[in-house]
Amino acid sequence: MIPCRAALSFARCLIRRKIVTQDSLEDSKLCRCLSTMDLIALGVGSTLGAGVYVLAGDVAKSDSGPSIVISFLIAALASVMAGLCYAEFGARVPKTGSAYLYTYVTVGELWAFVTGWNLILSYVIGTSSVARAWSGTFDELLNKQIGQFFRTYFKMNYSGLAEYPDFFAVCLVLLLAALLSFGVKESAWVNKVFTAINMLVLLFVMVAGFVKGNVANWKISEEFLRNISASARKLPSENGTYVYGAGGFMPFGITGTLAGAATCFYAFVGFDCIATTGEEVRNPQKAIPIGIVTSLLVCFMAYFGVSAALTLMMPYYLLDEKSPLPVAFEYVGWGPAKYVVAAGSLCALSTSLLGSIFPMPRVIYAMAEDGLLFKCLAQINSKTKTPIIATLSSGAVAAVMAFLFDLKALVDMMSIGTLLAYSLVAACVLILRYQPGLCYEQPKYSPEKEALESRTSPASKSESQATMLQEQGFRLRLLISPSTLPTQQSASLVSCLVGFLAFLVLGLSILTTHGVHAIVGLQAWSLALLVLLLLLCIATTVTIWRQPQNQQKVSFMVPFLPFLPAFSILVNIYLMVQLSAETWVRFSIWMALGFLIYFAYGIRHSLERGPREEDDEDAYSDNVNAATAEKSAVQANDHHRRNLCLPFSFHEKTSEC
User: Rounded CA gap, 608 and 532, in Å?
Assistant: First the structure.
């Protein structure tokens, strides 16, 4: 009996949820000094990195052609779905932690730790890789003299390490870490300056492209491309088209445009850093949703304009995959413009680097504040109001990685953390909106209340529990004719259906990725499985849609529920399945290290480990009797009811530090 109860207690620890009270929302140890414009600049700077100077040429030449503008549109719509889910949680829970916090208050501690641990990995690798890219871009302007010097005197001939130690990248990361430690207001000011320069350069590129562009580059004929392919002695590809496509606006067809959209989706990653500023922004319930949506809109307009200008200036098959804009300006006779592009690229890399390193210590701080990571990481500087230990330690780790390691093989691991966070936030929105009530925190454990409960007769307890089971038991009629108001039954049903939907989407993604040849070959088993999975996905989504939603309003809410979050889950899981097996092996190693920390330290030091669990552990050691077992069951049920009440909607906090 005791091992069974111990297992149940352990399981409750894994699914216990964070209770956010009104006092905790209003009180912040950090400095509330950021405005809505600061958040927009932070989101744009983090999202609109150097990819806008490189990605458009690469995707246009190999996948989409001139239809890259459509690829960016599709990718932007998919990103906006994730952004809207973040925006609603930012309005409900304006606290530091981003997807980690949103998962903690909705689906439990274990999933929250998995999310936060992977976000840390994504930010560390992102910071290190962008720092090395900044160093490489600056070296290009100096004709690669820095790299040549270090290759000569500091060459490293070890597998997995970089070709040479990048001292420049180390100095850059440590400089930004020191800037963030000095104060968030100063960091936001620097970010706004670099973001403004970057936007001016992109505006120049767009104007130049439309002035020097030629619409004929969007109407290249198939015969012309066939002659070019023949003169270049390039054979047709597997699908029968020539290496440069079939011409026109979509030279590689709709499949090429969609393939380009999948690549372009990663260009919009970065807006989630806005969600980590919940305790540092004035009016967070309004500023965070506005910042997320506006920054995604600005980034889409920039990507759309630059890609259109690029493909108008130069035929897509002539684009340079590594430096498309300088080569395009050379093509139209504006060679000196490459220096303007270089300046914009360095500013874009600077803002992208700041956007990567900015949220990293805040997620670490949130996890340490909750007790899931070491408590020393939650230390706040009394003068600057910044998480000083988390900032310096995470900056040091990123600097070491940028100094020694070849990060090309690790960059794909960034995608797992980001896409997993997107998927969980979308699932949490679905679960949250169908809860029966968003109430305040229940009264805490008290000995007086316990003494009164212990005097209740066993007969009355048994009768009460039987009635509760009868009333709360799952009823099939909920699927056919749900109630008009959300109940605990409908909320539990939606939670189960969301998990089932994620499982179906995973199966559908695996089938369409690894069984695509069977589907194209019209094999019966693949078609039958595809139709079955699609029908189950549609039926599950419709069943969720029929359940009653909570009518409580906040400043921003996701529209088109449950279809928009469900589609966001589909896109994110599909992209995760596309990652290589080597990436998943590295991800498993990182998760094993994380679970070691969680089960050895975090699960025992979590702030949500209330008096009930401590009493349970003492009772186990003293070999409790049957009366104590009944008391523990009542307490566990009360704790479960308390966790189901999600206190999310509060008055806005507008005070500064």
Answer: 41
Q: Could you write out the DSSP letters of every residue in 366-401? A: HHHHTTSS-GGGG---TTT-S-HHHHHHHHHHHHHH
What pLDDT was estimated at residue 167?
A: 87
pLDDT value of residue 625: 46
Interhelix angle 184-212/337-357, nearest 10 degrees: 150
Q: In this predicted structure, what is the pLDDT of residue 424?
A: 92
Pair 425, 82: CB distance under 8 Å: yes
Backbone angles phi, psi at 113, to 5 degrees: -65, -40
CB 53 within 8 A of CB 345: yes
Q: Which residues contact 547 (CB under 8 A, 6 or more apart)?
A: 434, 478, 482, 486, 490, 493, 494
Measured distance CA(106)–CA(425) in Å, rounded: 9
Looking at the chain, the whole-number percentage of residues with pLDDT higher than 90 is 33
Distance, in Å, from the CA atom of 588 to the CA atom of 255, rounded to the nearest integer, reads 32
**Where is pLDDT greater, at 625 or 173?**
173
Residue with tokens 């186990």: 620
d(CA 657, CA 32): 5
Token pair belonging to 220: 């290249």
- pLDDT tens-digit readout, 252-308: 888 889 888 988 888 898 888 998 888 888 888 889 999 999 999 999 999 999 999
Rounded Cα gap, residues 549 and 547, in angstroms = 7
Rounded distance between C-alpha atoms, residue 109 and residue 606, angstroms: 9
Inter-CA distances, 64 with 255, 261, 454, Å: 9, 9, 70
Name the amino acid, one letter, at 476: L
**Residues pairing with 229 in the sheet:** none
Contact partners, residue 136, CB within 8 Å, separation at least 6: 147
The rounded distance, in Å, linking the Cα atoms of 199 and 177 is 24
Q: How far apart are CA 374 and CA 397, in angstroms?
A: 16
How confident is the model over 81-136, as pLDDT tens digits?
999 999 998 888 888 888 898 999 898 899 999 999 999 988 998 888 888 888 88
C-alpha to C-alpha distance for 344 and 355, rounded to whole angstroms: 16
DSSP code at position 271: G
CB atoms within 10 A of CB 310: 26
**C-beta neighbour count of 132 within 10 angstroms:** 24
625 CB burial (10 A radius; 0-12, 13-18, 19+): exposed
In sequence order, the 6+-apart residues with CB closer than 8 A to the CB of 580 are 412
